[in-house]
Write a structure and sequence with these properties.
Largest sheet: 4 strands, mixed
Structural class: mainly beta
Radius of gyration: 18 Å
Order of helices and strands: EEEEEEHEEEEEEEEE
Distance between the termini: 32 Å
Number of domains: 2
Mean pLDDT: 92
Number of strands: 15
Helix content: under 10%
Low-confidence stretches: none
């Protein structure tokens, strides 16, 4: 598996950056999202069919705001977006995980990170980050964040927002998928 710059990642085991530089700047090291959360615009997974997602164990890292940089790591999981995000959920990671698919029943509070798919039952609070798809039952509040980090809200059953129907933000407006 090759990533940006042609770096060859193993599907499992230890890996080290051949060009490590501890300066807090992008490049010259390995990069990832801490706990699967951060800036998803720094990648191209949404354009690649069959992209592999890695879960890494990292001892030390440099925070680059939205992603982290590190000299070495151990690949502990290699799979699809769903298997990788499920791995994080099963490990007890909470918060806006990038690319996660989550759902909840009535009166639930469910959220996902950028590029996620989130659904809830009636009277739920359903939120997703930039590029996410959300749906909820009657009386649910849908919340989507756009690329400028501005939250937009809609209530199912008001202003034409239908129950159990997926929506995305398009030009700041809730739009049926």
């Amino acid at each position: 598996m090759r990533s940006y710059g042609g770096f060859l990642w193993p599907e499992s085991g230890y890996v080290e950056a051949p060009d490590w530089d501890p300066q807090p700047a992008c490049g010259r090291g390995l990069h990832g999202w801490l706990n699967g959360q951060g800036d998803y615009t720094c990648q191209s997974f949404t354009e690649i069919d069959g992209a592999k997602w890695l879960i890494l164990e990292v001892d030390n890292f440099i925070d680059l705001v939205g992603k982290v940089k590190f000299q070495s790591c151990t690949v502990v999981h290699c799979g699809t977006r769903q298997t990788a995000t499920n791995y994080l959920l099963q490990a007890g990671i909470s918060g806006p995980i990038i690319g996660v698919t989550v759902s909840g029943g009535p009166n639930s509070r469910v959220s996902g990170g950028d590029g996620s798919t989130v659904s809830g039952g009636p009277n739920s609070r359903v939120s997703g980050g930039d590029g996410s798809t959300v749906s909820g039952g009657t009386g649910s509040v849908l919340i989507l964040r756009d690329c400028n980090y501005s939250p937009k809200t809609a209530t199912v059953g008001e202003n034409g927002i239908l129950p159990d129907t997926p929506y995305i933000l398009k030009d700041g407006v809730f739009t049926r998928v």
